[in-house]
Amino acid sequence: MKRWHYVSIISLVVAAGLLGAGALVVGQSRVPSETIASSVTRTPELIERAWHLPVAATFHNYVSWQTNGSRCGPAAVANAYRSLGEAASTEGKVLAGTGRCWTGVCILGLTLDELAEVARANTSRKVTVLRDLSEDQFLEHLRRSNDPGRRYIVNFDRAQIFGASVGHHSPIGGYLEGEDLVFVLDVNSDYQPWLVERKRLFAAVNTFDGDKKRGLLLIE
After folding, report:
1. Are strands 181-184 and 167-176 parallel, antiparallel or unpaired?
2. pLDDT the model gives residue 175
3. SS3 labels along 55-91
């Protein structure tokens, strides 16, 4: 068999593997719309109030959806940077020069540490990983999530809130302290922004991704 036949076969195998992995990641994000609606709060009055929180207001009632089920991390960073007026305001610009997700798919997604590396690549802002947080520490950061100089990205296990699926990244739009509700600007178009009780979000964050806890990414 000629060399180009070998190359073609290898290319097809690699492509099939990447497509299969991408389909796996995308498929894992599927949750029935009825389950999504019943799992979180979307009361119009509360959602309207949440969009007027100091940080949420900088997103201008708009979230740029992730381009596929594996790229929630880059999409979350891109949305946060757009709200801060940073140049890296798209998935492509966030990922530029990082070597990550070069196939168009972030195979098995990005861990919190990997996302931090990506977030640091095209900005001069300080990016900090916050994990192993106590419930009190988590509450303190939620209170600070209303500070316009800060952006938080939350890494959580969807199963703790929606009963199915896997890990996910999305920006936090702010915290309605009186109602004890967190505004999550979900970058997945199937979910869209929602409010959830602080304790339930903490339970979803206080889970393991591999051998490390999930947590928050602080950009300032």
Report:
1. antiparallel
2. 99
3. CHHHHCCCCCCCCCCCCHHHHHHHHHHHHHCCCCCCH
The predicted pLDDT at position 29 comes to 53
pLDDT reading at 7 higher than 60: no
CB 203 within 8 A of CB 154: no
Nearest CA to 30 among 69, 71, 72?
Answer: 69
123 neighbors 86 (Cβ within 8 angstroms): yes
Q: In whole angstroms, what is the distance from residue 146 CA to residue 211 CA?
A: 31
Distance of alpha carbon 186 from alpha carbon 30, whole angstroms: 14
d(CA 59, CA 83): 5
Angle, helix 135-144 to helix 198-205, in steps of 10 degrees: 110
| 15 — pLDDT class (breaks 50, 70, 90) | very low
Q: In what helix (H) or strand (E) does residue 161 lie, and over which residues does it extend?
A: helix 159-162
Cα separation, 71 vs 25, whole angstroms: 10
pTM of the predicted model as reported, rounded to 2 decimal places:
0.88
CB 169 within 8 A of CB 73: yes
The closest alpha carbon to 185, from 64, 25, 27, 34, belongs to 64
Average pLDDT over residues 50-54: 98
